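call fold target=Aldo/keto reductase
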Amino acid sequence: MPFSRLAAATTPTARIGFGLAAVGRPGYITLGRDADLPASRSVEALRERTFELLDAAYASGVRYIDAARSYGRSEEFLADWLRARPDIGDVVIGSKWGYTYTAAWNADAAPPHEVKDHSVAAYVRQREESAALLDERLDLYQIHSVTPQSPALDDKELHGELAALAASGVTVGLSVSGPEQAAAIRAALAVTVDGEPLFRTVQATYNALETSAGPALAEAHDAGLTVLVKEGMANGRLADPHAPAALREIAGEAGLGSDAVALALVLRQPWAGVVLSGAATTVQLVSNLHAAAVDLDAGQLERLAALAEEPSAYWERRGQLPWH
């Protein structure tokens, strides 16, 4: 599987990936993003910012890049960057289908900015759209934000389409979302085609505030899936100046930012394969990458464990974050 090339990466930061959710579109829910991006939210301004971040990430050893059809023009920006850097052949590219971006590049558009559709028709359309941009550079294609109620878990026709994609050499996975992430992961582990597991990766939210998917992610890892972690900083809630006091205190002890400590907590999970940075500036990215050097002791881990929230409360709070 092409995605397995990540296992061969030897850079110190190879387990940290870079996600384009925050820079592929003018509006997103990360706290502080209104000040992080350039005053002009034009397509060209965000393309330039994306290039800047991708260059910095690659130079720092990051080798996995995460995009999605619903992240505005993220696939387009990524494809442009890859064409402008023809000598870069060792990055692993992942994208997702299942949401359609509907905000028409308007940061002030009323939510929702994306609409979910896990039908076969949506897959076929979005797969063609992704292929038109990323062609053979696409290594991983995931269903976006599966919940236990998603028809994607039971749709045999869709499973056949995805199995055909896997047979062509593209790794097939899924991302999960919401307070029932664990149930969605376990349901996905049971999906097979011709007796073989369909999904080879799972991407989930896991951070100091939302740890409920941990046991199911361990099961997925034990079953041979690569685990990718998104929202390790809880959409900015674990970054300065919004981080809880305990996290800021531990960051002070480490001499680093709260973001580095928050990501370090995720990196130390034995099942975590790739942990995504969603930085919107190069300063944030560099700070995020310091997570690879953070060593948390037992007392610090205990203090961080006390930050965990009930999943329903966490996801309700996340749903109330404004689109900046």
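return ok
Residues 12-319 form a domain with the TIM Barrel fold (CATH 3.20.20.100). The chain has a mean pLDDT of 95.
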